[in-house]
Design a protein that fits this description.
This protein has one domain. With 225 residues, it is mainly alpha-helical. The chain is built from eight helices and no strands.
């Protein structure tokens, strides 16, 4: 019996650990993308568009990192559900999963708008500003990120922290901190240019905790005679 339990326990430990690493990767990639975009593109959608000529490379790098961040985020969602296990609350889990997927879809949609705008500028650099396409695309991308994506991130944090308190995914103080940050995201729409950094920083904190928490059972198991 003992010989059968060892690979089972090892498998249970590896999945959350791999997901935690994916969560860290998601956080780092998204932080890099947000910083690059924030430093390259003006916060207001009414800018004249000079960044298209001077900051195209950094913006393109940020957009290329986002798909990989999205893949890592899906794995991060998986590890959180793995820690819920059989105690998963179906209602909160549905809100948790739905808000996470919506957040990811909105981020991808906003990135596609910016990427399409850059391709249009490369094709017709002298005429793009004359048709109102630039102002429309910038406004759409701005609204997607600062209104919808941030709100979905806030809902994701609320549901995750509620599940954490009920099931014990991570410490209660992390859950209450998540509540505070979620309220900030819901109420600070369009007011703080660096607000999109709140979500990946929170996910980084949770992922680091899960990673170290999953080393403890392994050490205890291996220490047994």
């Amino acid at each position: 019996m003992e010989e059968v339990k060892e690979p089972v326990i090892t498998a249970q430990l590896k999945a959350p650990r791999a997901g935690a690493i994916a969560g860290i990767l998601f956080s780092i990639l998204l932080i890099i993308s947000v910083v690059l975009l924030r430093l390259s593109v003006p916060d207001s959608p009414g800018d004249p568009g000079t960044w298209l000529a001077h900051s195209a490379q950094s913006v393109r790098l940020a957009l290329n990192l986002l798909p990989f961040a999205g893949l890592a985020f899906l794995w991060f969602i998986g590890v959180l559900r793995d820690r819920m296990g059989a105690n998963e609350d179906r209602f909160l889990a549905t809100v948790f999963l739905g808000s996470g997927l919506l957040f990811l879809a909105i981020i991808f949609a906003s990135s596609a708008v910016i990427g399409g705008l850059m391709m249009a500028y490369e094709a017709i650099p002298g005429k793009l500003m004359d048709f109102g396409i630039y102002r429309f695309a910038r406004t759409v991308a701005y609204e997607l990120v600062n209104v919808y994506a941030l709100r979905m991130a806030g809902v994701f944090m609320f549901s995750t922290c509620t599940l954490a308190i009920r099931i014990g995914i991570f410490p209660r103080w992390m859950a209450f901190l998540g509540y505070t940050l979620a309220v900030f995201l819901l109420l600070s729409i369009g007011r703080f240019g660096w607000a999109p950094l709140v979500f990946p920083l929170w996910a980084l904190m949770i992922s680091v905790y899960i990673l170290f928490a999953n080393f403890r059972p392994q050490l205890t198991f291996e220490a047994q005679p």
